[in-house]
Amino acid sequence: MKIAFILLSLMFISLPVMADSIQSQSTICLHSEHGISETPSDWLLLVYMDADNSLGTSGAVDTNLRQLMAVGSDETVRIVVLLDRNGFGDAGVYLIQHNNMVRDNDTGNLIPSSNEINMGDGATLRAFLNYSTKFGRNHTFLVLWDHGSGWKGFCTDSQSKDSLSLSEIKGALEGFDIDVLGIDACEGALVEVVYELRNSAKYFVGSQKDEPESGWNYTVLLNMAKNESTLSPENFARAGVESFRTAYQKNPSLSVSVALSAINLTRAQYLFNALNNFSAALKTAVPLLHFELSTARNSTESYEGDSSSDIDLGDFAKKCQGSSYIEIRVHANEVLSLLRSCVIDTAGITAFIPANGVRADNVTGLSIYFPKTNFNIAYANTRFALENRWDDFVMEFLSPTAIPNATLVVSCVVSQSSNQTYKINVTNPENAMVYICNNSGLPIYASNNSSFEYFIEVPDYYEVLVYNFTAVNGYTYLNGFSKIFNDWIGETKPNLRIKDIQFYREDNVPILGQTGKHPVHNRTFTMDMSMENTGNVNLSFSIEICVDSDIYREQVALGVNESARMIKKIKLSSGFHEIRVTLDPENKIRETNETDNSCIQKFTVLEATPRSGIILNIQSNQPGNFKIYNETGFLIADEKLKDNTQVYVNYVHFYEGEYLYLHIYTERHTMFKKIQVFSEDHSYNVVLEFTDTEYTSVDYVFLISAVILLILIFLFVALLVSKNIRR
């Protein structure tokens, strides 16, 4: 009885110790200190880790903390984390060391005695930044870690039922010198978010769409950053995207498509100015060109957002480059140009089979709110909507103003005035707005005179576009459009085309096609493309090769009727891949045929053979020789055949699922066998049974030769006998 009582007492005494041990393990905190080292470092990485919600029990917290500890703090980067899980009283500040976390118990007024804080309050974020000033550093990278809802806000605190609005984040960061602001959450890289925070940091890193729970890979990020010869703010921001690309691009278990962008915030205002002009042109055209704009919207890549209402801004602008309204063309080109200048890097990776059907093939760095149906009235209160015209366009698009279409009476005559000059003569009695556009689709002349002449000295493709406008409720809308001329003027008629494109393995066997062969993991294969200029003018253009989300470009020049080949070596990991080749991807050359400039090839790369080769165990009841060939006829082995022969075949001589051909021949027999090779099998047994009843061509030759020899001997003997008889 006493023994039982003692054991029971020990068990109750040990429970608090066990609880402390479990809690310590869950937070990965090894010890605490009253004040932690404040030795200066070049960079201070601050992670505002709000796990006071569903992420607190998802495993994502511990995964990211272990990634941070795998590298740890040093003189280059000091890592400090403010962590609040979804229990009560578990908030703390930690210095991340290599394979260790040290809790700082000297945090001033940041962590109260209850150890519970509201991570959804801007005051908490500002207190964390105030606390961080005790650490000497040259640069600061602040990461907001949690769930995200784009323009609705970030960092939800379940205990306090609160979250950070964009204005709260902006206010909390005011006065602090933040070099890079990162949002490791869903829907960070939205126009509305970046606009609000454009003056809060120099660079920004975030996702255009939903992120997986695992978020960023901090081990890869920190290792890449520390490998930079100069860890500038731009390089650290780029490392964020490159590490994201590295972590997810080769991940076969990826179930949702992902994207991440690095943005230079010092250039962002120029983009927003251009976007404002683009928005105004779009709104003007809605009543007349609603179907055209709907087609552009529906074909633009869209993401999860507010009921799948976020679209890629750059992809939409590209769809508008060929708009009927010239002002949309002009400002779409301007938006694209400034977007490329603002977004310094972007990664879009589409899952093999996206669980939610959302892809990331056409990411350009920023998403924007553009619902197909219902407009969220709360959007109108965002800083971006209040200070820009995009929401005006979206609301006009969802409920177009009814305007009667105007009838345009405009005529155009093109004539040759000299050997090198052509004249465009326009009659415009109603003084509509007339634009003359060149090969690039942009205006070179505009007039609303009742008649005018324009002289062309450069043979090219030209358009003459006519517009009419009307005012409704104080706003001017487009209510009439006509394309009265679009053709080549002069003899210049360029045309590019892809003649042929083939893919070959290392052994020159074609990939796909009728052979049904596939490339193999990390094995080089060849792309062989031929192209030609079938037009009557010399052309200089770029070639774009997209291997999944990686883009390569080269400049090429082709003379009249000239052809060229491009051969590229490619190596891919196992899984589904897409290669797209496009001539003149910017569409700078207006061609007589625009449909033969691009080619897309999709295929699956097989898993590599997990070992260096296979073993053939050949058993034969007769000695002889044998040869082994692969499907291309390459001689792999030529050896003596014994009772038991073991042959090693290196994997470089065969591909998954192919046949090896054995040619066996003994003194009296010849035999052929084929073996299909699979990587999961290490060895193959080949049993050869030769019997005396089996006769080959060799046997028959031997038999006939023997008969002939016997006949000759018989004749010779008969001849000798005959001579003896005569004597």
Average of per-residue pLDDT values: 85
Using the 3D structure, state the CATH architecture of the largest domain.
3-Layer(aba) Sandwich
Indicate the low-confidence ranges by residue numbers.
1-27
Q: What is the CATH third-level topology name of the largest domain?
A: Rossmann fold
The value of Rg in angstroms is 37 Å
CATH class of the largest domain: Alpha Beta
Q: Any overview of this molecule?
A:
This protein is α+β, with helices and mostly antiparallel strands. It has five domains: 27-264, 3-Layer(aba) Sandwich (Rossmann fold); 268-398, no CATH class; 411-489, Immunoglobulin-like (Sandwich), CATH 2.60.40; 496-605, Immunoglobulin-like, CATH 2.60.40; 613-694, Sandwich (Immunoglobulin-like), CATH 2.60.40.10. It is built from 13 helices and 36 strands. A ten-stranded mixed beta sheet has the order 1-5-4-3-2-6-9-10-11-14, with helices on both faces. A four-stranded antiparallel beta sheet has the order 19-18-21-22. A four-stranded antiparallel beta sheet has the order 26-25-28-29, with no helix packed on it. Helix 2 packs parallel to helix 6 and helix 8 (268-299) packs across helix 10 (326-342). Residues 1-27 have low confidence and may be disordered.
